[in-house]
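Lab meeting, item 3. Inverse folding demo.
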């Protein structure tokens, strides 16, 4: 059996959590393959809100198991804290022994680098994501499986401080004592080792036994380390291809690829955003869409749907379909704009160049509608809303198979 995949199409926060939770009711396992607790996936069920950062969004289906793959960077502290919300995770949560750990030193380095960048700051979540992935690539990272021998791990961390003395001094990062490290790692080992395993073998077994596996992306395509708006990106492969390295599966193991996309656009942090609206309409999107970050509480920047960027992202991920989220946030707008081309070096183009910051949006306007909020069937949508969805589908060259009209699991239209 092939696994199905959910991937963010814009700059994150598209509503991946809602769709993974909804679909997870029909899956045996949900697996995260990249990112860390920079992610914030919100799920609303029966008026109760869950904000997940590391635990896959399948956790609310008691019959599904949840996997954190080798490509995720795991803060043991954040994971332990998040696990406290649920009391029945043993045998339902599996964490890769080769996933890299985010330790306090990575968080301090992340924040110090951001301070040093000044007005060129990336606007990271400050969770240590970049430094943890950097150390992994530099072959000096710390893996979760090392909690099996905390004495050796403590030695390696002390060695790290010795080897990076100048950097640590420059940012005021004090070397911990061996005893402090042992106390910290003992707690992590006691609480996490029962969940730590070889998740590659586990995923292969599930697929070989024809179990249904759902792969949950974090962040979004335009934040991808290779294909996003570099350097204003996160430090992992957020696109569908990242699921292969991040779980140890191969491209043939992936079946359906559903891109999650908002009916408009948002971005948290810095970097280019072609369709950003700095005026009243951007503010109205922020208010109606409650566009404040799940992880950091920061205001999300808001603007119009960018059909060029979404077409690009859909091709890059190989999307078999899209879920269009938050259509209800556009309720009451008289006019809705969509970017259909870019003005770039005096020319009109219909693709995304690498220096997208030099593009100006060319808009097409669509008439608005009164209300879509809470709609559960296509026929309940006003005609202008239906036309908007169909126009987007044609522009981005991918079927819009689901339309979401509220945060609630049930307010989802399937086409
Ligand atoms: P994720 O990171 O992609 O999982 O998305 P977030 O959870 O960070 O942000 C999406 C926000 O929009 C959450 O607060 C969701 O509850 C909410 N949401 C999801 N779908 C809809 C929708 O169709 N309409 C509205 N109004 N809110 C939605
Ligand atoms: P979910 O999974 C939106 C952004 C940060 C910053 C950049 C780099 O909820 O969609 P990092 O801390 O990763 O080094 O920050 O990436 N970012 C996100 N933006 N949603 C996310 O996750 C994000 N995770 C990181 O704001 O611009
Ligand atoms: Mg989010």
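The presenter then showed the designed sequence:
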């Amino acid at each position: 059996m092939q696994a199905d995949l959910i991937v963010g199409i814009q700059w994150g926060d598209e509503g991946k959590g809602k769709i993974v939770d909804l679909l997870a009711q029909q899956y045996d396992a949900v697996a995260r393959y990249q990112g860390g607790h920079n992610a914030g996936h919100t799920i609303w069920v029966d008026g109760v809100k869950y904000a997940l950062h590391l635990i896959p969004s399948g956790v609310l289906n008691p019959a599904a198991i949840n996997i954190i793959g080798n490509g995720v960077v795991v803060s043991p502290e954040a994971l332990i804290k998040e696990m406290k919300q649920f009391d029945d995770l043993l045998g339902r949560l599996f964490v890769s022994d080769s996933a890299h750990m985010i330790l306090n030193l990575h968080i301090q380095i992340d924040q110090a680098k951001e301070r040093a960048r000044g007005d060129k700051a990336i606007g990271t979540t400050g969770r240590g994501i970049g430094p943890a992935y950097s150390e992994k690539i530099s072959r000096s990272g710390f893996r979760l499986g090392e909690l099996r021998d905390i004495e050796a791990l403590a030695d390696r961390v002390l060695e790290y401080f010795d080897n990076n003395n100048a950097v640590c001094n420059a940012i005021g990062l004090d070397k911990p004592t061996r005893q402090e490290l042992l106390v910290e790692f003992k707690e992590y080992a006691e609480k996490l080792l029962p969940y730590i395993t070889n998740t590659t073998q586990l995923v292969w077994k599930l697929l070989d036994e024809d179990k249904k596996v759902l792969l949950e992306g974090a962040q979004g395509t335009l934040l991808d380390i290779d294909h996003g708006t570099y350097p204003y990106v996160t430090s992992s492969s957020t696109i569908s291809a990242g699921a292969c390295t991040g779980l140890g599966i191969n491209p043939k193991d992936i079946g359906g690829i559903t891109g999650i996309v908002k009916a408009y656009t948002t971005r948290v942090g810095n970097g280019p955003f072609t369709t950003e609206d700095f005026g009243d309409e951007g503010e109205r999107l922020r208010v109606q869409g409650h566009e404040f970050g799940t992880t950091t509480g920061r205001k999300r920047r808001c603007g119009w749907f960018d059909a060029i960027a979404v077409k690009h992202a859909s091709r890059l991920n190989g999307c078999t379909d899209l879920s269009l989220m938050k259509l209800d946030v556009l309720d009451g707008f008289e006019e809705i704009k969509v970017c259909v081309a870019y003005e770039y070096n005096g020319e009109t183009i219909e693709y995304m160049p690498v220096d997208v910051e030099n593009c100006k949006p060319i808009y097409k306007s669509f008439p608005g509608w009164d209300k879509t909020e809470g709609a559960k069937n296509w026929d309940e949508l006003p005609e202008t809303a239906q036309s908007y969805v169909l126009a987007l589908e044609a522009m981005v060259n991918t079927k819009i198979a689901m339309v979401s009209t509220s945060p609630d699991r049930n307010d989802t239209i399937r086409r």
